Amino acid sequence: CTPGLDDTVAGLAAGRGGDEAQRLAEYAIRYVLLTRPVDQNLARTLDSVPGLIRVSAPDGAALWKVTFPSARVRVINPDGKIQFAVPSEPVDTVAQLPPGPAGRRLVLAESADHRWTATLDGRKLPKEVVHGWAQGFRLPAEGGRLEIRYDSTMREMSLVLQLVLLLAVIVLALPDGRRAEDEEEETETPPGGVEVPPATAHPEAGVEPDRPILP
Questions:
Q1: Which residues pair with 74 in a beta bridge?
Q2: What CA–CA distance (Å, rounded) separates 34 from 12?
Q3: How many C-beta atoms surround the C-beta of residue 126 within 10 A?
Q4: Peptide bond into 37 cis (omega under 30)
Q5: Percentage of the chain with pLDDT > 70?
Q6: Higher-confidence residue: 204 or 65?
Q7: Same domain for 17 and 87?
Q8: Would you say residue 172 lies in a domain?
Q9: Domain for residue 209, yes or no?
């Protein structure tokens, strides 16, 4: 789970009346839904949370909208206010960034991870952790072409390695067909041969098996 989100949800349910709705916006969460049957006590608690307003919902459910600005990628001014939201894709993002005040930051609604990178006109942006969990980057005052990337190479290599190991286990688990064929050939009677019954395979010395023994 995203760090801090459990605590935020717990604060909403407890009706702390703090900044829970604003923190939801930092996670790029825009709505809070209670499925049916709706707990009326919890619904009244959410009605009292600053930054949440109830909107129409499917029959039997209850829905609230977060009134604070929310976006997956946003530029934050030095005073902590959102300068603007950056249009983004689910993972990688390319956008034109306008100029702004010095000391602003680029913040993603994603857990901090060393595989996130961001460049402005090809120059790497310094990384930082925002709010104790979110991936952030320090921005200069000038604008330019912004590119945000997530390096999934290690994950892809890990999946390939797991697939190779799985195939190896399957191959080792298959029966040895050649060995089974060899064992069958050893037990078969050779062409033109006669199978000797066990009782006559090794007759005692001096006794002819085909003649009766006289007293």
A1: 85, 107
A2: 12
A3: 11
A4: yes
A5: 70
A6: 65
A7: no
A8: no
A9: no
pLDDT the model gives residue 138? 98
Q: Of the residues 18, 37, 66, which one is the last residue of a structural domain? A: 66
pTM above 0.85, yes or no: no
Q: Is the pLDDT of residue 54 over 80?
A: yes
When computed from its CA atoms, the radius of gyration of the chain, rounded to whole angstroms, is: 37
- Give me the sheet containing 93-97, strands edge to edge: 93-97, 144-150, 116-120, 123-124
Q: Tell me whether residue 161 is in a domain.
A: no
Count up the domains in the chain and report the number.
Answer: 2
* Residue 136 sits in the same domain as residue 93: yes
Supply 53's token pair: 């307003």
Span between the terminal Cα atoms of the chain, in Å: 97
Query: In this structure, are residues 105 and 135 in contact, taking their beta carbons and an 8 Å threshold?
Result: no
- Domain of residue 130 covers 73-153
Q: How does pLDDT run across 67-114, given as a tens digit for each residue?
A: 998 899 999 999 988 888 999 888 899 999 999 999 999 999 999 999
Give the list of residues 6+ apart from residue 209 with CB closer than 8 angstroms, or none: 200, 203
Same domain, 94 and 54: no
What average pLDDT does the structure give for the chain?
Answer: 82
